[in-house]
Amino acid sequence: MGINKTGGQAHQVSTQAQQVSTQAQQAATGRALALRVITPQDYDALVDELKGIVTEGVHASRWLLIKTYHKLGATILMNEASLKPQYGEKYIERLEKSTEINKRDLYYALAFARKYPDLTKIPDGKNASWSKLVKNYLSDGKKKKADPVKCTCPKCQTVHDVKEMSKS
C-alpha cells in the first residue's frame, strides 16, 4: 500500500501549523517560558531581533513621512498653475486655512517636490529624515526668531513684550 505524497505533505503542513499555533498560544499566555531555558545566546539573538524590528519600523516611518510630504508638494505643484490665477500668490495661505496644514509645511513640501522630483535622488537616501531634509536642504539655514509674546500691563494698560515685563 503506497503513501499518498500529496496527502502526507498536507498532513505534515497541518501538523506544523498546529504546532506553531500551540506555540503562539503558549507564548501569549506566558507558558512558553516554562518549556525551555533561554541561553545567553538565545537572549542576545532575541535582543538583536527586537532592535531590528524597531529599526525597521523607524526607517519605514521616516521614509513614509518623506514620501507623504513629497506627494503633498507634487500635488500642489501639479495644481499651481490653476491655483495662482484664481487665488494669486497667497494660494498657500488659502490652502493652509482649507486643509489645516501649517503653511510652513506646505511651503517646504512644495520646495521639496521642486528640488527633488525624483525621490531616489534625495540626499542620504533611505537614511534621510524629514527634519534633516528641511534643516539641511530646504531652509536657508537661518533660525527664525519667534514673534515676541505680548501682553497688556494691568497697571499702565501698555502692551509689552513678555520678556520685557519679566525684567521689571
How would you characterize this protein structure?
The protein has 168 residues and is mostly helical. It has a domain at 36-141. The chain is 68% helix and 4% strand. The chain contains 7 helices and 2 strands; from the N terminus they run ααααααββα. The chain has helices at 5-29, 32-35, 40-87, 91-99, 103-115, 130-138, 162-167, and strands at 150-152, 159-161. Strands 1-2 form a two-stranded antiparallel sheet. The protein is extended and about 70 Å long.
Strand numbers in spatial order across the main sheet = 1-2
Counting helices, strands and paired strands, the structural category is: mainly alpha
| Number of strand segments | 2
User: Major beta sheet, specifics?
Assistant: 2 strands, antiparallel
The coarse silhouette is: extended
Uncertain runs are 1-7, 164-168
Measured between the Cα atoms of the first and last residue, the distance is 102 Å
Number of continuous helical runs: 7
Please provide the ordered H/E string of secondary-structure elements.
HHHHHHEEH
Mean pLDDT: 79
Oligomeric state of shown chains? single chain
Approximate helicity band? 55-70%
Task: Briefly characterize the structure.
The chain has 168 residues and is mainly alpha-helical.
